[in-house]
Design goal:
Blueprint (H helix, E strand, L loop, with lengths): L3 E11 L3 H4 L4 E12 L2 E7 H7 L4 E12 L1 E7 L13 H14 L4 H17 L2 E7 L4 H13 L3 E5 L1 E2 L12 H15 L5 E7 L7 H13 L4 E6 L3 H10 L6 H6 L8 E5 L5 H10 L2 E4 L1 H6 L7 H6 L3 E4 L11 H14 L6 H15 L17 E4 L5 H7 L5 H11 L5 E6 L2 E2 L2
Parallel strand pairs: 1-4, 5-6, 6-7, 7-9, 8-9, 9-10, 10-11, 11-12, 12-13
Antiparallel strand pairs: 1-2, 2-3, 4-14, 14-15, 15-16
The structure holds guanine and zinc ion.
The site of zinc ion has 6 residues, from strand 5.
Amino acid sequence: MTNTCLHLGQTLCFDGDPFVDGLGAARHETRGGILVENGIIHAVGPSADLRAAYPWAQTVDHGDGLIVAGFVDAHAHYPQTGIIASWGKRLIDWLNSYTFPEEMRFKDRAYADEIAGQYLDFLLANGTTTVCSFCTIHPESVDAFFAAAAERNMRVLAGKTCMDRNAPDGLRDTAQSAYDDSRRLLTHWHDKGRASYVITPRFSPTSTPEQLEALGSLWAENPDCMMQTHLSEQTDEIEWVLGLYPQARDYLDTYQAFGLLGEKGLYGHAIHLEPREKDKLADVGASLVHCPTSNTFIGSGLFDMAGLKSGGHNIGLATDTGGGSSFSMLRSMAAAYEIGQLRGNPLHAAELIWLATAGSARALHQQNRIGNLGAGMEADFIVLDLASTPAIAQRSARARDIWEAVFPTIMMGDDRAINATYVAGEKRV
Ligand code: GUN
Ligand code: ZN
């Protein structure tokens, strides 16, 4: 029984999607708790009930701390850690000036190991327990990432980024080598411990039709895997895509034509979508990933959260580090709120927290394991300090309910608001 631990504090979890089911989808206990045994949550409820039911459990009292699921970052580039916050470029120039030279360095396994470890430690400090990351074209970058995640016992998703054109020498593979390397890495890493392999064509401009076709075949052969890429991030990118694929009806069609559209597809950004693209993405049940700090930082545009949610799309939230300007999902929630305001649709605190946890987990098809507090879920959770700075504390002290108490932390909080991060029941921060 030594492995049974009762964590007490405020608790917040979800019985549904607050965008669809309203605030009734959220369950908050002022004095609640979660019972964790061998890395799994066994019960969630009022503290008094849990204490009575499990009197032998070791107790950790987090006081006023708010226990929520660990954050799930649905789209990031761990190799861009070193070039985060690089000034003054838009997407294509930003890739060529900052990103590609840095990604070149990941051929060196020792460098990839160093950055992967540093990156995952930044995530844990920021309360993120799961990420879906792009690596670089180098298999070494994938091995380094999954190895660093395994050391920390983190549930992660990642894949080798494939590019066989419009990238510099030293940063291109071929259609065949992308297929072969991805297949080998997938066979080695997929479902190994807490790792999932994700088939990863960077985006249509950096792949030939032959490469997209090869990766479409790999996905068809491994339908259990997710596939991640970028879609309709900037208008000049879209024009470039249509020039490179003259037969395509739209940007999405460049993926659809090669077997790269499906329910387990993850499409980052998805800002400037045509009606056909929106309908098709909803039809197949694909996941869109909102990357708000990136979309403002690189000047991409304002994601239509309200329109796409009401269209029934699956949507996750992400940092998109290092196009995104933060490692923090709190900061990503704040930026999502601000973009909602600019579009005339302020997101509620419940919607923001849902997006950063259960919503992203669902986008990644991991909702039965992570992203929520509930019996049978993996015990990846965090404890939020809702008064982590004097400025936040004076505002949350006036709160009349949990939403007013948590919103100042969403808008003004950073890693100081993360009191603790637990991965599979073990305290990591
Ligand atoms: N499109 C293709 N590659 C990238 C990338 O690394 N970051 C972002 N934001 N967009 C991309
Ligand atoms: Zn990206």
